[in-house]
Amino acid sequence: MAHDIEVEIERFIDAARHYQQCLDLATQNQQDNNTEEVLVSNLQGSRRTLLENIARWKNLVSTPTEHWEQTTINFCAESSLRWLLEFNIPALVPEDDQTTITYRDLAAAAGVPEQELCRILRFAMTQGLFDEPTPNRVAHTPYSLAFSRNEDYRQVVLLQTGFFAPMMKSLYEAVKSSEAAKGRSAFNLAMETDDPFYAYVSKHPELTKRFGAGMRFVSSAEDTSPQFLSDGFDWARLGKAHVVDVSILEFEPISACVMVGGSMGHVSASLAKTFPLLHFTVQDLPAMVARAKASPSASLSQLEFVEHDFFQSQPEASRQADVFLLRLVLNNWPTSKCREILSQIAAAMKPSAKVVINNFLLHDRGTLGKRTEALERARDLFQMAAMNGMERDVQEWHELIDGVDGLDIEKVVPQVGGKQVLVVARKSAQ
């Protein structure tokens, strides 16, 4: 294992050197974009492999005592990080790597007690957040500087530490009190509300802002583009066909910050431009439809917007649809609710119609690196805590469709090397 880490460090250094050479050539307009994309991919892959190997070493040498110590460090790191970001300390430290600021001046600028600031910063420094190059003077590290230069990054971490953390810590209470069986999630218990998750967020402007920033940041960090949906299903074979996009977002304020899922016809518009013979009906809640009709997507002749609640019977016009599309929807709901949604669709399908589901895929245990799998399963736990929803593996997608009268699963197509999956179902034979 030590040899693996040594080799990966060499690969990472080599990838970083080639990437820097690429940037230098790009500055001189001597480098094409495809080469840069390959080098970025190589650099990211090497970095992730190195992190995986380091994590394996850490687990190998740690005893229960070290794991307990790490838990202590982790929850203190979470609390101190929130403190520093809420007071926007990164923005108050000079960005110039040759310039520092005293604890006294920094405390005065932030309006916080100097002693508390000093204690919290010195803990954060053990985690690579800020530095003290000379006694009593604070400077940035690359980690802390990122918060100063990227407001979305600061907002998404504040969302995690201030909103998601107490929600996740209520998972135990949700099960112990049987609240989940009543439809109440860990989120409902943590926030002491009966509002659904998105309804609660929409009532709090600061949360709405942070949620939008978080979705922008995640979209830039992960491949959530609809390209796999476009490539993974044979849309061209449909010819002139009618597609009903049932990808309801439920949360109108977020869509004003960032377009995701089927909100504002974003995905349907992308598919319509690639496959001009397709006509799309985008279903959404009234507030979303009103916004969609004022968006650029509304100018496409292939798109129409219809108000609909997917727990109700499908409109009569949908009964001749060739495809019902659900993208990044079913992970927001427990299995029983997913089957309600799909049952309404199945009841409206003509014999030749298909259901196309595009979602994240939960890979089988042990098929990914530990760190990658942990991030995947963290997403699943978030869905559990927020909405009693879940991410699903291949078997669970089969089980979901098998439990819907009127639907048979046709195929499940995982994204090669990616995080998404396509699930295609057909109308059951009578």
Q: What would you note in describing this structure?
A:
The protein is of the alpha/beta class and 430 residues long. The protein has 4 domains: 2-61; 66-149, Arc Repressor Mutant, subunit A (Orthogonal Bundle), CATH 1.10.10.10; 151-219, no CATH class; 222-427, Vaccinia Virus protein VP39 (Rossmann fold). It is 54% helix and 13% strand. The protein has 19 helices and 10 strands. It has helices at 2-27, 33-61, 64-86, 89-92, 103-110, 114-125, 142-149, 151-168, 171-176, 186-191, 197-202, 205-221, 227-232, 252-257, 266-274, 286-292, 335-348, 370-387, 394-402; strands at residues 101-102, 131-134, 137-139, 241-245, 278-284, 303-307, 323-327, 354-360, 407-414, 420-427. It has a 7-stranded mixed beta sheet, with helices on both faces. It has a 3-stranded antiparallel beta sheet with strand order 1-3-2. Residues 251-263 have low confidence and may be disordered.
